[in-house]
Amino acid sequence: MRNQKYPLIFIVEDNPTYNKLIFNHLRSHKLINTESYLSGEECLKNIHHKPDIIIQDYLLDGISGLDVLVATKKKCPSTDFVFLSGQDNIEIAINCMRFGAYDYIVKDQYALIKLSDKINKILIHRELINNNKRFKRGILFFSIALSIIILIFAILAILYPNTFSVH
């Protein structure tokens, strides 16, 4: 992830009006590093940008949202997906989650609020993972440094027994 404050977010929505609505909503919530696409094919052509989050419609003309998810996860496994779709079908939602989607939101009057909430949860989760990795590296560094110091004292005690002897 490039920057926790400015994650790269792709919007993949074939309805230009709703695409713009999502784009403006994210911008109004300070999520300014956003790219929008009207098709799954466009999204996949630009997947080399390595988005942090993809907001994906399920039903698209051409390649489906699920196909975009599967193709993206092969190239960018850490990309999180949030489906934002008009398909109010629990089986579709479960299938998306099974293939690695973070969540599935049905388009309704609260969808954009739910979307903001999900993005915030993704960012918090990623920050916790990064903090955990830094903590583990710190513990590893401390353990190695302590082992080296103990080893140095052991070598010095062997080489200079009179200096380190207990009287």
Could you outline the blueprint of secondary structure elements for this entry?
Layout: E1 9-12, H1 16-28, E2 34-37, H2 40-45, E3 53-56, H3 65-75, E4 80-85, H4 90-98, E5 103-106, H5 111-159
Summarize the entry for a quick read.
With 167 residues, this protein is of the alpha/beta class. The protein has helices at residues 16-28, 40-45, 65-75, 90-98, 111-159; strands at residues 9-12, 34-37, 53-56, 80-85, 103-106.
Description:
By secondary structure, the chain is an alpha/beta fold. The chain has one domain (9-127): Response regulator (Rossmann fold, 3-Layer(aba) Sandwich), CATH 3.40.50.2300. It is 53% helix and 13% strand. It has five helices and five strands. The chain has a five-stranded parallel beta sheet with strand order 2-1-3-4-5, sandwiched between helices. The mean pLDDT is 91.
Radius of gyration: 24 Å
The helix/strand order is EHEHEHEHEH
> How many domains is the backbone divided into?
1
Count of individual beta strands: 5
Global shape? elongated
CATH topology title: Rossmann fold
Mean pLDDT: 91
Task: Summarize the main sheet.
Answer: 5 strands, parallel
Helix fraction by DSSP (H/I, runs of at least 4): 40-55%
What is the CATH C-level name? Alpha Beta
Q: Would you identify the CATH H-level superfamily?
A: Response regulator
CATH architecture: 3-Layer(aba) Sandwich
Alpha carbon gap, first and last residue: 58 Å
How large is the count of helical segments? 5
Main β-sheet, spatial strand arrangement: 2-1-3-4-5
**Which secondary-structure class do the elements indicate?**
alpha/beta
Point out poorly predicted stretches.
none
